[in-house]
Amino acid sequence: MSLRAEAPPATGIPRFTRAERWIHRTTALLMGVCVVTASFLYVPEFAQLVGRRELVVRVHEIAGVLLPVPVLAGLASRAFRADLGHLNRFGPHDRRWLRAALRRDKRRASRPAAKFNAGQKIYAAWIAGATLVMLGTGLIMWFTHLTPIMWRTSATFVHDWLALTIGVVLAGHIGMALGDPEARRGMRTGSVSREWAEREHPLWRR
User: Fold this and answer.
1) Are 186 and 204 in contact (CB under 8 A)?
2) 90-124: b (≥16 Cβ within 10 Å) or e
3) 67: exposed, middle or buried (C-beta count within 10 Å: 0-12, 13-18, 19+)?
4) Which residues of the chain are modeled with pLDDT < 70?
5) N or C: at which end does the chain have fewer Cβ atoms within 10 angstroms?
6) What is the pLDDT of residue 108?
7) Cα–Cα distance between 50 and 54 in angstroms, integer?
8) In this structure, are residues 164 and 73 in contact, taking their beta carbons and an 8 Å threshold?
9) Cβ within 8 Å of residue 183, ≥6 positions away
């Protein structure tokens, strides 16, 4: 890809630092490995395509254990910690955004947002919680000799059904990203156009 294609627009404003972009990319890669390997383990049509099931299991386990590492390492970044603070704060404008979304009101004036909109905040909180649950249940399933069989059975049930839910939610997340090229550019280059920021995130203090 040419350097010109990667360059931010002339009127671009910074949105994400290089550290934040690498955190997102690494987390997405590990999550992708978990989803793909889980598909080969649980979908019969895919399972027939691999001959070394034990290797797929090990790759899945290692990727799952490593999944929280990029975020934990990212806590060393001041910008990342600041964005976590933005994601954890829910204000009146976020409730207004959600009401508009539930009514399918797509008018920009009805969906005020700061650096992150209410949908992004809910997604971030949900995926973080789901990741921790998947890690906990996965460890119970991995170290079978440490817990009673009832725990392992319950952990397997939660792990499998939550994995399916995560797959659906991730598909929605990717679909939203595909529909917003400017948001993707912000994650790829770190900058977005001022026009997009004023239109999609009018309350964002830049």
Assistant:
1) no
2) eeebbeebbebbeeeeeeeeebbbbbbbbbbbbbb
3) buried
4) 1-11
5) N
6) 85
7) 10
8) no
9) 177, 192, 196, 200
| 135 token code pair | 């890690």
Q: Which residue has the tokens 């997340």?
A: 173
Residue matched to tokens 């948001």: 183
User: Per the structure block, which two tokens stand in for 49?
Assistant: 């395509």
> For residue 177, what are its two tokens?
């990203």
**Cβ-Cβ contacts under 8 Å for 119 (sequence gap 6 or more):** 97, 98, 101, 176
Tokens encoding 149: 């069989």
96 within 8 A of 105, measured Cβ to Cβ = no
Q: Which residue has the tokens 């900058």?
A: 191
> What is the rounded CA–CA span in Å between residue 22 and residue 73?
11
81 in Cβ contact with 19 (< 8 Å): no
Is residue 15 within 8 Å of 191, Cβ to Cβ? Answer: yes
Contact assessment for residue 13 and residue 192, using Cβ atoms and an 8 Å cutoff: yes
Map residue 191 onto helix, strand or coil. strand
Residues pairing with 192 in the sheet? 13
